[in-house]
Design brief:
alpha+beta; 282 residues; single chain; 4-stranded antiparallel sheet; two-stranded antiparallel sheet
């Protein structure tokens, strides 16, 4: 058995995107250069006698500078883009740990690897909660597309076994699904950054507005498509699925306030905690 190179899940760096303030100060006047570095250095499992090294993608840097305008949607997306950067880094760390657990005799999960993989779901959902509500549909769609790629990469680790196994076939199949999301991730992040920098700011809805619950319903539905029932990702959220509210709460699935992509969800708002949204399996 050869070592499995999993850095294909790492995506590309987000240099100059999530961590740079727009020109003109925190209010969002103007926009930074958007630089995306594509590719990363592959790592191989340390214990395999004949490691298989994936071809390292060519590193390319593309810089797009949006024209100055004030205010822009950039500031509204800064917190979300910071979450995107953070989750991308955690996915890279999990990939490196998983790679270290693949040996000549099979997959040997270490506690640190298991902990890193298990923590990804909470990180994914926290990133989804950071998607701003009330944005134009194009920005919302672009944000959720990036989110779906992160979620797909995280769900790819569902193939990582809980106990030692002599076969890595299932893990390989799952990581291949995550690799497809990682391949398109840098370009889609760059497109989101450019769109935010060139789009005017939108009115921020009140915390109690249904628009906030609709974002949560969409992100939870995406995560369900990626990871439900031990799925390994693969869903690409390149369209904005509809959210429809019922005139009043129904008794379907123990209580339904509406549907997202035709699937029932329950939504409750409390001033102390904000919206709680539960998307039923479907």
């Amino acid at each position: 058995m050869t070592a499995l190179v999993v850095t294909v899940l790492a995506g590309g760096g987000l240099t100059g995107c999530g961590g740079t303030s727009p020109a003109g100060g925190p209010g969002g006047g103007g926009a930074p250069a958007v630089t995306v570095t594509v590719g990363s250095t592959a790592a191989t499992g340390p214990t395999a006698p004949t490691p298989t090294t994936a071809t390292t993608p060519t590193t390319a840097t593309a810089t797009t500078t949006a024209p100055a305008r004030s205010p822009s949607a950039w500031a509204q997306l800064r917190a979300y883009l910071a979450r995107v950067d953070a989750l991308d880094a955690r996915l890279k760390r999990a990939a490196a740990l998983v790679n270290g657990d693949i040996t000549a005799s099979g997959v040997r999960p270490r506690p640190a690897t298991r902990a890193a993989v298990d923590a990804l779901e909470a990180d994914v959902l926290a990133t989804g909660r950071a998607v701003p509500a009330g944005m134009p549909s194009a920005l919302t769609r672009a944000s959720l597309l990036v989110f779906s790629e992160l979620a797909s990469r995280a769900a790819a680790f569902n193939g990582f076994p809980a106990v030692a196994t002599a076969s890595d076939a299932h893990l390989r199949a799952c990581l291949a699904v995550g690799a497809r999301a990682a391949a398109r991730f840098p370009a889609d992040v760059a497109a989101l950054c450019a769109l935010a920098a060139s789009s005017p700011a939108s009115a921020v809805p009140q915390a109690s507005a249904r628009a906030t619950a609709e974002v949560l319903a969409r992100t939870q539905r995406i995560w369900g498509r990626e990871a439900c029932c031990d799925s390994c990702g693969g869903y690409v959220a390149d369209t904005l699925v509809p959210v429809v509210w019922h005139p009043q709460t129904t008794t379907v699935n123990g209580g339904s306030d509406g549907t997202v992509a035709g699937v029932d969800f329950a939504a409750t708002y409390r001033a102390s905690t904000g919206w709680t949204v539960v998307v039923h399996a479907g």
